Amino acid sequence: MGGAFLAAAFLARLGGRIGLPTIPLFILAGILLGPHTPGYTLLSNPHDLEMLSALGLVLLLFYLGLEFHMDDLKTGGRKMAIAGGTYLALNVGAGLIFGFALGWGTSEALVLAGVLGISSSAIVTKILVDLGRIGNPETRPILGIIVVEDIFLALYLAALQPILSGADSLSAALIDGGKAFGFLLLLALAARFGTKLIGKLMNTKDDELLVISFLGVAVFVAGVSEMFGVADAIGAFMVGLMLGS
Known about the structure:
It is built from twelve helices and no strands. It has helices at residues 2-17, 22-33, 50-67, 70-75, 77-101, 106-117, 121-130, 139-164, 170-193, 195-202, 207-227, 232-244. It is globular.
C-alpha cells in the first residue's frame, strides 16, 4: 500500500511540473499498479483501499462545505438554482432518453440518468484546489452549481433508495424513502437554523482538539447518513456547510 502511494505521488509530481492536475495521475497509478492490467501488481486486492478512498471523499466534500457559506447561497441562490437546474435538466433528461434507447427498464434508466446527470463534486473541488482558484470570485458560481447538484443528488438518491435497496413491497419502499428524506430534512434544518449552536459546541482554542472534533463529526455524520440511505459524502458536505457558516 505504501509503495502504491509513493508511485501515485511520483506520477503526480511529474505531472505537476507540466501543469497537469493530480487526480488523473492518481487514477493512472491505480490502473498501472492494479491487478487488471499487465505489469507489476502492487495491490492485488483493491478493496483494501475502500475505507481510505471513502474517507478521502468524505473529507473533500466536507472541505467543499467549509468553503461554501450560507450567505453565498442566499445572495446568489436564484442564479445558482437556474444554472444548476438547467444543467441537471439537460443531463438527467439525456440520461433517461439514452437508457430507454438502450431498451433498459425504468429503474435502470433512472439510475443511468443520475450517473450522467451529476458531475463529480470531489474532482471539481480538487482541481480548483490544485489550480489555486478556490478563493477566486469566479469560483463561487462554480461551487454554487456543485452545491445545487449535491442537493439534487441527495434528493435523487433518497427517491431511488427503495429501488436500490430492492424493497419488496410498497410499504417497505415508502419506509426506506421516508427515512432518507427525513434525515436529509434534519440535516437541512440543522444547516439553516443550528449553525450558531453547533459553532459554540465545537469552539475551542486548542487547534488539535478542533481538528479532531471537526474530523470526528464529519466522519460520524457521514456514517449515520449512509445508514439512513443518504450518501456519506452528502452528510459530510452538510456538516462542512454548518461549520463553515
